[in-house]
Specification:
Blueprint (H helix, E strand, L loop, with lengths): L19 E2 L9 E10 L8 E3 L5 E5 L7 E2 L10 E5 L5 E5 L6 E3 L2 E2 L4 E2 L5 E4 L2 E8 L1 H15 L13 H5 L1 H11 L3 E8 L2 H8 L1 H18 L5 E6 L2 E7 L3 H16 L14 E7 L6 H17 L5 E4 L1
Parallel strand pairs: 4-5, 16-17
Antiparallel strand pairs: 1-2, 2-3, 2-12, 4-6, 6-7, 7-10, 8-9, 8-11, 11-12, 13-15, 13-16, 14-15
Protein backbone atom coordinates (compact mmCIF):
# COMPACT_ATOMS: atom_id res chain seq x y z
CA UNK A 1 0.00 0.00 0.00
CA UNK A 2 1.32 3.44 -0.94
CA UNK A 3 1.18 6.33 1.50
CA UNK A 4 -0.98 9.33 0.53
CA UNK A 5 2.12 11.29 -0.39
CA UNK A 6 4.72 9.65 -2.58
CA UNK A 7 8.16 11.19 -2.16
CA UNK A 8 9.85 11.41 -5.53
CA UNK A 9 13.35 9.93 -5.82
CA UNK A 10 16.24 11.93 -7.26
CA UNK A 11 15.62 10.14 -10.57
CA UNK A 12 12.36 8.68 -11.85
CA UNK A 13 13.93 6.97 -14.84
CA UNK A 14 13.12 3.42 -13.68
CA UNK A 15 12.22 0.38 -15.73
CA UNK A 16 8.69 0.08 -14.36
CA UNK A 17 7.73 3.73 -14.90
CA UNK A 18 5.43 4.64 -17.77
CA UNK A 19 7.69 6.92 -19.82
CA UNK A 20 6.10 9.40 -22.24
CA UNK A 21 8.35 11.53 -24.50
CA UNK A 22 7.98 15.29 -24.20
CA UNK A 23 6.35 16.59 -27.43
CA UNK A 24 8.78 18.60 -29.52
CA UNK A 25 11.83 17.50 -27.55
CA UNK A 26 14.74 15.89 -29.36
CA UNK A 27 16.79 15.13 -26.28
CA UNK A 28 17.25 11.44 -25.67
CA UNK A 29 15.58 10.36 -22.48
CA UNK A 30 13.63 13.61 -22.11
CA UNK A 31 10.44 12.21 -20.64
CA UNK A 32 7.60 13.13 -18.36
CA UNK A 33 5.95 10.73 -15.98
CA UNK A 34 2.13 10.43 -15.93
CA UNK A 35 1.16 11.33 -12.39
CA UNK A 36 -2.18 11.57 -10.60
CA UNK A 37 -2.32 14.61 -8.33
CA UNK A 38 -5.07 15.82 -6.00
CA UNK A 39 -5.85 19.40 -7.07
CA UNK A 40 -9.02 19.96 -5.02
CA UNK A 41 -10.11 18.03 -1.98
CA UNK A 42 -9.69 17.95 1.79
CA UNK A 43 -6.60 19.78 3.03
CA UNK A 44 -4.93 16.58 4.15
CA UNK A 45 -5.32 15.11 0.62
CA UNK A 46 -4.29 18.22 -1.30
CA UNK A 47 -1.09 17.72 -3.34
CA UNK A 48 -1.04 13.97 -2.75
CA UNK A 49 0.43 12.43 -5.91
CA UNK A 50 1.01 9.01 -7.45
CA UNK A 51 3.44 8.44 -10.38
CA UNK A 52 1.97 5.62 -12.47
CA UNK A 53 4.02 2.56 -13.30
CA UNK A 54 3.73 0.04 -16.11
CA UNK A 55 1.30 -2.85 -15.66
CA UNK A 56 0.15 -1.24 -12.42
CA UNK A 57 -3.23 -1.57 -10.74
CA UNK A 58 -4.35 0.95 -8.15
CA UNK A 59 -7.41 0.48 -6.00
CA UNK A 60 -8.77 3.93 -5.09
CA UNK A 61 -10.74 4.23 -1.89
CA UNK A 62 -11.10 5.48 1.66
CA UNK A 63 -10.09 2.21 3.34
CA UNK A 64 -6.35 2.35 3.97
CA UNK A 65 -6.32 -1.40 4.67
CA UNK A 66 -7.24 -2.21 1.06
CA UNK A 67 -6.75 0.82 -1.15
CA UNK A 68 -3.36 1.63 -2.64
CA UNK A 69 -4.47 5.16 -3.53
CA UNK A 70 -6.09 6.39 -0.31
CA UNK A 71 -8.36 9.46 -0.20
CA UNK A 72 -9.74 10.53 3.15
CA UNK A 73 -12.85 12.46 2.05
CA UNK A 74 -16.20 11.07 3.25
CA UNK A 75 -17.58 11.22 -0.31
CA UNK A 76 -15.09 8.51 -1.35
CA UNK A 77 -16.25 4.91 -0.99
CA UNK A 78 -14.07 2.35 0.76
CA UNK A 79 -13.55 0.66 -2.63
CA UNK A 80 -14.29 3.43 -5.10
CA UNK A 81 -12.47 2.90 -8.40
CA UNK A 82 -9.74 0.94 -10.12
CA UNK A 83 -6.96 2.55 -12.16
CA UNK A 84 -4.77 0.28 -14.24
CA UNK A 85 -1.96 0.84 -16.74
CA UNK A 86 -0.48 -1.44 -19.35
CA UNK A 87 3.02 -1.80 -20.79
CA UNK A 88 2.16 0.61 -23.62
CA UNK A 89 1.19 3.37 -21.20
CA UNK A 90 -2.59 3.21 -21.58
CA UNK A 91 -4.34 4.30 -18.38
CA UNK A 92 -7.88 3.02 -17.74
CA UNK A 93 -10.35 4.01 -15.00
CA UNK A 94 -13.16 1.75 -13.81
CA UNK A 95 -15.80 2.69 -11.23
CA UNK A 96 -16.46 0.00 -8.62
CA UNK A 97 -20.14 0.79 -8.04
CA UNK A 98 -19.19 3.63 -5.72
CA UNK A 99 -21.85 5.58 -3.82
CA UNK A 100 -20.96 9.02 -5.24
CA UNK A 101 -19.59 7.96 -8.59
CA UNK A 102 -16.49 8.53 -10.70
CA UNK A 103 -16.30 11.14 -13.46
CA UNK A 104 -13.77 12.16 -16.10
CA UNK A 105 -14.02 15.77 -17.26
CA UNK A 106 -17.50 15.96 -15.76
CA UNK A 107 -18.82 12.83 -17.49
CA UNK A 108 -19.88 9.95 -15.25
CA UNK A 109 -17.90 6.74 -15.77
CA UNK A 110 -20.20 3.81 -16.51
CA UNK A 111 -17.75 1.44 -18.21
CA UNK A 112 -13.91 1.35 -18.11
CA UNK A 113 -12.66 4.56 -19.75
CA UNK A 114 -9.19 5.71 -20.86
CA UNK A 115 -7.63 8.60 -18.93
CA UNK A 116 -5.40 11.02 -20.84
CA UNK A 117 -2.90 13.68 -19.71
CA UNK A 118 -4.75 16.83 -18.70
CA UNK A 119 -7.96 14.99 -17.84
CA UNK A 120 -9.74 15.75 -14.57
CA UNK A 121 -10.69 12.67 -12.57
CA UNK A 122 -13.38 13.15 -9.95
CA UNK A 123 -13.50 10.51 -7.21
CA UNK A 124 -16.58 11.39 -5.17
CA UNK A 125 -15.91 15.02 -4.19
CA UNK A 126 -12.13 14.84 -4.67
CA UNK A 127 -10.66 16.21 -7.90
CA UNK A 128 -7.49 14.68 -9.30
CA UNK A 129 -5.70 15.54 -12.53
CA UNK A 130 -3.47 13.37 -14.69
CA UNK A 131 -0.36 15.42 -15.39
CA UNK A 132 2.91 14.72 -17.19
CA UNK A 133 5.59 15.74 -14.72
CA UNK A 134 9.34 15.99 -15.10
CA UNK A 135 11.70 14.49 -12.56
CA UNK A 136 12.31 18.01 -11.22
CA UNK A 137 8.57 18.57 -10.73
CA UNK A 138 8.19 15.21 -9.00
CA UNK A 139 11.14 16.00 -6.76
CA UNK A 140 9.55 19.35 -5.84
CA UNK A 141 6.29 17.62 -4.89
CA UNK A 142 8.29 15.15 -2.84
CA UNK A 143 9.97 18.03 -1.01
CA UNK A 144 6.55 19.60 -0.37
CA UNK A 145 5.39 16.31 1.13
CA UNK A 146 8.45 16.27 3.39
CA UNK A 147 7.80 19.84 4.52
CA UNK A 148 4.19 18.98 5.35
CA UNK A 149 5.27 16.01 7.46
CA UNK A 150 8.09 17.77 9.33
CA UNK A 151 7.98 17.66 13.10
CA UNK A 152 7.27 20.97 14.77
CA UNK A 153 4.98 22.22 12.02
CA UNK A 154 1.72 23.97 12.82
CA UNK A 155 -0.80 21.10 13.23
CA UNK A 156 -3.48 22.64 11.00
CA UNK A 157 -1.56 24.30 8.18
CA UNK A 158 1.66 22.21 8.35
CA UNK A 159 3.61 25.45 7.95
CA UNK A 160 6.46 26.56 10.20
CA UNK A 161 5.48 28.10 13.50
CA UNK A 162 6.57 31.51 14.83
CA UNK A 163 9.44 29.78 16.62
CA UNK A 164 11.26 30.02 13.28
CA UNK A 165 11.47 33.80 13.69
CA UNK A 166 13.45 33.42 16.90
CA UNK A 167 15.44 30.26 16.24
CA UNK A 168 16.28 30.27 12.51
CA UNK A 169 15.57 33.63 10.88
CA UNK A 170 18.51 35.45 12.56
CA UNK A 171 20.94 33.00 10.96
CA UNK A 172 19.28 33.48 7.55
CA UNK A 173 19.59 37.26 7.92
CA UNK A 174 23.27 36.90 8.89
CA UNK A 175 23.95 34.82 5.78
CA UNK A 176 22.20 37.41 3.65
CA UNK A 177 24.39 40.16 5.10
CA UNK A 178 27.60 38.13 4.78
CA UNK A 179 26.93 37.30 1.11
CA UNK A 180 25.30 40.63 0.17
CA UNK A 181 22.30 38.62 -0.95
CA UNK A 182 18.85 40.23 -1.08
CA UNK A 183 16.13 39.07 1.29
CA UNK A 184 12.41 39.68 1.01
CA UNK A 185 9.38 38.75 3.04
CA UNK A 186 5.69 38.76 2.29
CA UNK A 187 2.62 38.80 4.49
CA UNK A 188 -0.65 37.38 3.28
CA UNK A 189 -4.00 37.58 5.00
CA UNK A 190 -7.19 35.86 3.87
CA UNK A 191 -9.84 38.43 2.99
CA UNK A 192 -13.03 38.35 5.03
CA UNK A 193 -11.99 35.27 6.95
CA UNK A 194 -14.23 36.10 9.91
CA UNK A 195 -17.20 36.17 7.53
CA UNK A 196 -16.23 32.71 6.26
CA UNK A 197 -16.20 31.37 9.82
CA UNK A 198 -19.49 33.11 10.63
CA UNK A 199 -21.25 31.92 7.45
CA UNK A 200 -19.87 28.40 7.07
CA UNK A 201 -18.54 27.49 10.51
CA UNK A 202 -15.08 27.02 11.96
CA UNK A 203 -14.67 23.58 10.39
CA UNK A 204 -14.86 25.11 6.93
CA UNK A 205 -12.60 27.95 8.10
CA UNK A 206 -9.98 25.42 9.19
CA UNK A 207 -10.31 23.62 5.85
CA UNK A 208 -9.76 26.89 4.00
CA UNK A 209 -6.56 27.50 5.98
CA UNK A 210 -5.31 23.96 5.36
CA UNK A 211 -5.97 24.16 1.61
CA UNK A 212 -4.51 27.65 1.28
CA UNK A 213 -1.31 26.47 2.95
CA UNK A 214 -0.93 23.62 0.46
CA UNK A 215 -1.58 25.94 -2.47
CA UNK A 216 1.26 28.11 -1.16
CA UNK A 217 3.65 25.20 -0.54
CA UNK A 218 3.06 23.85 -4.04
CA UNK A 219 3.95 27.19 -5.61
CA UNK A 220 6.91 28.51 -3.64
CA UNK A 221 10.51 27.38 -4.06
CA UNK A 222 12.05 24.75 -1.82
CA UNK A 223 14.21 27.40 -0.14
CA UNK A 224 11.30 29.74 0.63
CA UNK A 225 10.05 29.58 4.22
CA UNK A 226 6.31 29.66 5.00
CA UNK A 227 5.24 30.51 8.55
CA UNK A 228 1.81 30.60 10.14
CA UNK A 229 2.19 33.96 11.81
CA UNK A 230 -1.16 33.99 13.57
CA UNK A 231 -4.78 33.20 12.77
CA UNK A 232 -5.20 33.43 8.99
CA UNK A 233 -2.00 35.47 8.50
CA UNK A 234 0.97 33.78 6.83
CA UNK A 235 4.52 35.10 6.49
CA UNK A 236 6.74 33.96 3.61
CA UNK A 237 10.51 34.52 3.54
CA UNK A 238 12.09 34.74 0.05
CA UNK A 239 15.89 34.29 0.31
CA UNK A 240 18.00 35.68 -2.52
CA UNK A 241 15.05 37.61 -3.93
CA UNK A 242 14.66 41.25 -4.93
CA UNK A 243 11.46 43.20 -4.33
CA UNK A 244 10.08 42.94 -7.88
CA UNK A 245 10.55 39.15 -7.93
CA UNK A 246 8.89 38.84 -4.51
CA UNK A 247 6.00 40.96 -5.78
CA UNK A 248 5.63 38.62 -8.77
CA UNK A 249 5.69 35.53 -6.56
CA UNK A 250 3.06 37.03 -4.24
CA UNK A 251 0.81 37.96 -7.14
CA UNK A 252 1.11 34.44 -8.55
CA UNK A 253 0.05 33.05 -5.17
CA UNK A 254 -2.82 35.54 -5.02
CA UNK A 255 -4.14 34.30 -8.37
CA UNK A 256 -3.74 30.65 -7.38
CA UNK A 257 -5.76 31.16 -4.20
CA UNK A 258 -8.52 33.12 -5.95
CA UNK A 259 -8.69 30.59 -8.80
CA UNK A 260 -8.89 27.48 -6.62
CA UNK A 261 -11.98 25.26 -6.80
CA UNK A 262 -13.41 26.39 -3.44
CA UNK A 263 -16.98 25.21 -4.05
CA UNK A 264 -15.82 21.71 -3.14
CA UNK A 265 -15.19 23.02 0.36
CA UNK A 266 -18.57 24.78 0.66
CA UNK A 267 -21.26 25.92 -1.82
CA UNK A 268 -20.68 29.42 -3.23
CA UNK A 269 -17.49 29.80 -1.19
CA UNK A 270 -15.03 32.34 -2.58
CA UNK A 271 -11.59 32.87 -1.06
CA UNK A 272 -9.12 35.64 -1.84
CA UNK A 273 -6.01 36.97 -0.12
CA UNK A 274 -4.21 40.30 0.21
CA UNK A 275 -0.41 40.58 0.26
CA UNK A 276 2.26 42.97 1.40
CA UNK A 277 5.94 42.46 0.45
CA UNK A 278 9.13 44.15 1.63
CA UNK A 279 12.84 43.85 0.83
CA UNK A 280 15.17 44.13 3.80
CA UNK A 281 17.25 47.32 3.77
CA UNK A 282 20.92 47.27 4.66
CA UNK A 283 21.38 47.23 8.48
CA UNK A 284 17.60 47.23 9.01
CA UNK A 285 16.40 45.49 12.19
CA UNK A 286 14.41 42.36 11.41
CA UNK A 287 11.31 43.48 13.29
CA UNK A 288 11.19 46.76 11.36
CA UNK A 289 11.59 44.92 8.03
CA UNK A 290 8.71 42.54 8.85
CA UNK A 291 6.61 45.43 10.14
CA UNK A 292 6.98 47.22 6.79
CA UNK A 293 5.60 44.14 5.01
CA UNK A 294 2.73 44.04 7.50
CA UNK A 295 1.92 47.70 6.83
CA UNK A 296 2.01 47.05 3.06
CA UNK A 297 -0.49 44.23 3.66
CA UNK A 298 -2.88 46.64 5.31
CA UNK A 299 -2.44 49.02 2.37
CA UNK A 300 -3.61 46.13 0.16
CA UNK A 301 -6.59 45.60 2.44
CA UNK A 302 -7.56 49.26 2.30
CA UNK A 303 -7.11 49.30 -1.50
CA UNK A 304 -9.93 46.84 -2.04
CA UNK A 305 -8.33 43.50 -1.09
CA UNK A 306 -7.25 40.64 -3.35
CA UNK A 307 -4.14 42.58 -4.41
CA UNK A 308 -0.43 42.97 -3.61
CA UNK A 309 1.32 46.09 -2.30
CA UNK A 310 5.04 46.78 -1.98
CA UNK A 311 6.73 48.48 0.96
CA UNK A 312 9.20 51.00 -0.44
Amino acid sequence: MRPPFVSAPESVDTEDTVRIPVPGSSRTGSVRVPTLKVVAGPGRDMLSFWPLGQSEQLLVGRDDREASLVLSDATVSKRHALIRTDAQGAIVVEDLRSTNGTSINGIRVQLPVALHPGDNLEIGGVLLRLELLSSEELHHLGRVAQRISEAGSDPLTRLRTRRYLEEDLPELVERSVATSSPLCCGFLDLDGFKAINDSYGHKVGDEVLARTSRIILADVRDEDVCIRYGGEEILIIFPGTRLEAAFGAADRLRRSIAGHDWHRTAPDLRVTASFGVAERHRDEPTDRWIDRADRALYQAKSSGRNCVRKAL
